[in-house]
Amino acid sequence: MKTRPSRPGFRRDRDIHPPLNFPDYTSTVLRYPRESLILLPQRLTELTGPVFGSDRLGPNDNDLTAQHAGEPIGQRIIVHGRLLDGDGKPIPHSLIEIWQANAGGRYRHDRDRWDCALDPNFDGAGRTFTDGDGRYEFVTVKPGAYPWRNHHNAWRPAHIHFSVFGQAFTQRLVTQMYFPDDPLFFQDPVFNSVPEHARELLVSRFDYVRTEPQRALAFEFDLVLRGRHATPFEHEGDDDD
Ligand SMILES: [Fe+2]
């Protein structure tokens, strides 16, 4: 009789992370993995392969309002925070990427068919590295809500997608940041797939101290990799909803 080689398994923290199969979020039913997740060891290739270094950053990569000749339409905002481990220790020099819809809720993406204008001055993508204290900052415009076809009259709350890379391209985590008091939370299965007590970890904090007079509102959003305050991250392979 053949026996399957045992491999180290991957255990999700179900107290924080959403279940892989969440029927209210209809596409998870079709795509969630039926087998247990396997922890793939990091080998020489993964650990020594080239990574995206800070020398590749352009001057406006973290200012999404300054990537074209004109300013994008919308509420200008600063989004900042820290990348931390579960002990509150900052994680320096890590690549953080964001992508988002424009102020009307439209992505610059071939598959986005939402009947709302693209903004010629807004691509909706940015990247930066955390500094020595694990801090990051983006300047952007507040994304709009957008409809999708998950259920009748479904609308995604305003959100910004975040990606964090570790020391190799195989070490990547993806999540979404929301804004305080969004009236669309109640009907959003992506947000509500996260256990109730952990949802606040996905909501940024309005930061009046960092608001810049005559320029921009500010929101603070810390990304925490492990521990009781860990940010709920998405399963690899989730799409951009
Ligand atoms: Fe989205």
Characteristics of this structure?
disordered C terminus; globular
What this model shows, in words?
The protein has 241 residues and is mainly β. The protein has a domain at 61-224: Protocatechuate 3,4-Dioxygenase, subunit A (Sandwich), CATH 2.60.130.10. Helices cover 6% and strands 22% of the residues. The chain is built from three helices and eleven strands, in the order ααββββββββαβββ. The chain has helices at 27-31, 44-48, 189-192; strands at residues 76-84, 95-99, 125-129, 135-141, 146-148, 154-156, 159-165, 172-178, 205-206, 217-220, 223-224. The radius of gyration is 19 Å and the shape is globular. The protein starts with 26 loop residues before the first helix and ends in a 17-residue tail after the last strand. Residues 236-240 have low confidence and may be disordered. The structure holds fe (ii) ion. The site of fe (ii) ion has 5 residues, from strand 7. GO terms for molecular function: ferric iron binding; protocatechuate 3,4-dioxygenase activity. Belongs to the intradiol ring-cleavage dioxygenase family. Keywords: Dioxygenase, Oxidoreductase.
Q: Which secondary structure elements does this structure contain, and how are they paired or packed?
A:
Layout: H1 27-31, H2 44-48, E1 76-84, E2 95-99, E3 125-129, E4 135-141, E5 146-148, E6 154-156, E7 159-165, E8 172-178, H3 189-192, E9 205-206, E10 217-220, E11 223-224
Parallel strand pairs: 1-10, 1-11
Antiparallel strand pairs: 1-4, 2-3, 2-7, 5-6, 7-8, 9-10
Fe (ii) ion binds at residues 156, 159, 161, 240-241.
